[in-house]
Amino acid sequence: MLDSSQLDTVSGVSTLAHAELLSGSQVSVSIKRRQSILFVTSEIADYIKAGGLGEVAAALPRALRHHYDVRILIPGYRQVLSQIKDLEEIARLPASFGIPACGLGRGTTQDGLTVYVLLCPELYDRDGSPYVDSFGADWSDNDIRFARLGLAAADIACGNGDTLWRADLLHLNDWPSGLASAYLAWRGQRIPTILTIHNLAYQGNFDRNRLPCLGIPEAAFQINGVEFYGKLSFLKAGIYYSSHITTVSSTYANEITRPEFGCGLHGLLRTRAEEGRLDGIINGIDASWDPSTDPYLVSRFSAENFRGKRANANTVRKSFGLDLSSGPLFAVVSRLVHQKGVDLAISATETIVSQGGQIAVIGQGEARFEAELRNLSSRHPGSVGVKIGYDEGDARRMYAGSDFLLMPSRFEPCGLSQMYAQRFGSLPIAHKTGGLADTIEDGVTGFLFGEPSLNRFKDAIRRGLETFRSRSRLTTMRRAAMNRPHGWDRSASRYQEVYERACQAALA
């Protein structure tokens, strides 16, 4: 047997031990331990989802687990606790400053992925989303709620959570987990941390008088720390203290180093880029997005045979109160907010309808856009259909049945809808920004326009309408879009490279 003292397991790097067998012969035995990755997230689509992060948190760890011992850490929201059937409490994490104590639960997903859950009903057992109440207002104690998440991640990385497991690397996501890398730094720990920015516009900014109750040293409230224009910023803390920063497309990684997209953090991000510590890695989509097997579709189809699209289109038309038509069907599947260019889609409606097109819209968001869309549907009965809210089946059938997806986003870190649409043979019409620029080849797998203006958007729509009238060209573009690589393999490979660099830097 090997003596445990012979094993070097610093930061989970592959280790080599030498053992003397009972025969007395000297043999080198290579012992390779998979690195342990704690993926820290405020949402995961298995249980609760507010946006694209939930989809990524469900897919990326699964793509990585063939190479790593990857586990999830998530708050114990009501929706999470009700769905993990084998959850058991394995530890108690103590209170710190104004952050309450909590239990640490351990369970598994249906396919065996280990999930750690923070058991703290006073913080997480509520109606609403992870971030807002049922009226759409931020929870007043969001700083405490997500400081608890960051502190727990740091505790687990230091071996103070699961006595049988500790993380070699933390993979943090957006502002809710941003303080984890800071807590490690303030403890003098060099455990590598990766922060992925899914949307720089959401930063987790709070009053500076919250520093004491969050356990943040006063000395950290400066430009080289957590201070952001007089506020405490969870996201800036994550960017400043993490070993490496990633974001969700290469174009967006470049954009956020410039003032127009950097949301006030462009200077720090430019510095990280110059240091070689900022990478853009495009997201993928999971294998369930397959029109030949999707159970939500009324008729399945493939890139070789599109006939099923018409049946799905007719189902969408009926569901959204649209007339039966052989004309083009446009879809909007989106949060109804300014960032997504909803106002541009509303203003372009006359152009689409006048050319015999129809529009189906599903989503929710700002009240003014919801009201405008309802009015639009009233003015164009049979041509414009709107559903406020979200339904997975409706959304999938819209991707499958539509000819075009409208995505005039003013900025889009990655975007998943354009990839869903492409996989289902719907051509995205999108602003050339962020992940849209990286995943849509203009005139081949969709249509791009160069500035978020109504005129440029209408020009792209007209190009789409011209393509619709050319059946051979439409078929060629649909096939190219459906056959574009959409999976997570390439993204997971890039994350492996980043993890390796971060671990090597921690050992230097």
TrEMBL record:
Its EC number is 2.4.1.21. Residues 37-270 form the Starch synthase catalytic domain. The keyword Glycosyltransferase applies. ADP-alpha-D-glucose binds at K49. GO terms for molecular function: alpha-1,4-glucan glucosyltransferase (ADP-glucose donor) activity; alpha-1,4-glucan glucosyltransferase (UDP-glucose donor) activity. Residues 327-474 form the Glycosyl transferase family domain. It catalyses: [(1->4)-alpha-D-glucosyl](n) + ADP-alpha-D-glucose = [(1->4)-alpha-D-glucosyl](n+1) + ADP + H(+). Pfam families: Glyco_transf_5, Glycos_transf_1. One of its GO terms (biological process) is glycogen biosynthetic process. Pathway: Glycan biosynthesis; glycogen biosynthesis. Keywords: Glycogen biosynthesis, Glycosyltransferase, Transferase. Belongs to the glycosyltransferase 1 family. Bacterial/plant glycogen synthase subfamily. NCBIfam families: glgA (TIGR02095), PRK00654.1-2 (NF001899), PRK00654.1-5 (NF001901). Synthesizes alpha-1,4-glucan chains using ADP-glucose. This is Glycogen synthase. The lineage of its organism: Bacteria, Pseudomonadati, Pseudomonadota, Alphaproteobacteria, Hyphomicrobiales.
